Amino acid sequence: MTLSIIMPVLNEAAGIEAALAALAPYRQRGVEVIVADGGSSDGTPGRAAPHADRIIAAPRGRAAQMNAGAAAASGDVLLFLHADTQLPDNADRLVLDGLARSRRAWGRFDVRIDGGGALRLIAAMMNARSRLTGIATGDQAMFMTRDLFTRAGGFPPIALMEDVALSAALKRLGRPLTLRARVTTSGRRWQKNGTLRTVLLMWRLRLAFYCGADPAKLARAYGYAE
């Protein structure tokens, strides 16, 4: 099987080159890297271009950008990676070998949040919750076969919780593969807004989503909207 890494971006000029440089070893082994830009105004596509196989323009919104990236990808397996998340060493082999060995068609990594302290506990709780529920989030670098992604309908066109919604659909089609190797995601969201405040906000938004709240309103409460 072949692997495509899809990275949705919006105004990530300050860090996009470093984020993509970390993927250089994968590209050298034949992994395709696609950047799906949602209309950046800070020059992100130009900075990304030398470090990716394709830069595509997509409607703004993480779900739309990732769906566009998937449509442009050539790999048998799709891995969706946030710009502020770094893969562990040999992630490509872990994914492809893990799927082949387990005969499963989708999964995610455990996560570590950069920053230490209480963020270690939050990451441990995220990993435990995913094991218990079978639901993954974008911070955990979700991956799946192209066939299963298509069967699940891709990411739903909603402003927030698109990762939760897709993993729920994938779960109905098969159990996820959990890779204990950890991706490292930035702690900037928690550090900027306060750790406890951010955790409580995320719990509230997740509960509201499960109760049927409008994802667009939840996105505005989270701090962004399409």
Please identify which CATH superfamily we are dealing with.
Spore Coat Polysaccharide Biosynthesis Protein SpsA, Chain A
Per CATH, the architecture is Alpha-Beta Complex
Radius of gyration: 16 Å
CATH class: Alpha Beta
Mean pLDDT: 91
The total strand number stands at 8
Overall description:
By secondary structure, this protein is an alpha/beta fold. It has a single domain, classed as Spore Coat Polysaccharide Biosynthesis Protein SpsA, Chain A, CATH 3.90.550.10. Helices cover 46% and strands 19% of the residues. The chain is built from eleven helices and eight strands. An eight-stranded mixed β-sheet has the order 3-2-1-4-7-6-8-5. Strand 2 (32-37), helix 3 (44-48) and strand 3 form a beta-alpha-beta unit. The longest helix is centred in the middle third of the chain and has 16 residues, at 118-133.
Topology of this protein?
Blueprint: E1 3-9, H1 16-21, H2 24-28, E2 32-37, H3 44-48, E3 54-57, H4 62-72, E4 77-80, E5 85-86, H5 91-102, E6 106-113, H6 118-133, E7 143-145, H7 146-152, H8 162-173, E8 177-185, H9 188-193, H10 195-210, H11 215-222
Parallel strand pairs: 1-2, 1-4, 2-3, 6-8
Antiparallel strand pairs: 4-7, 5-8, 6-7
Helix pairs in contact: 10-11
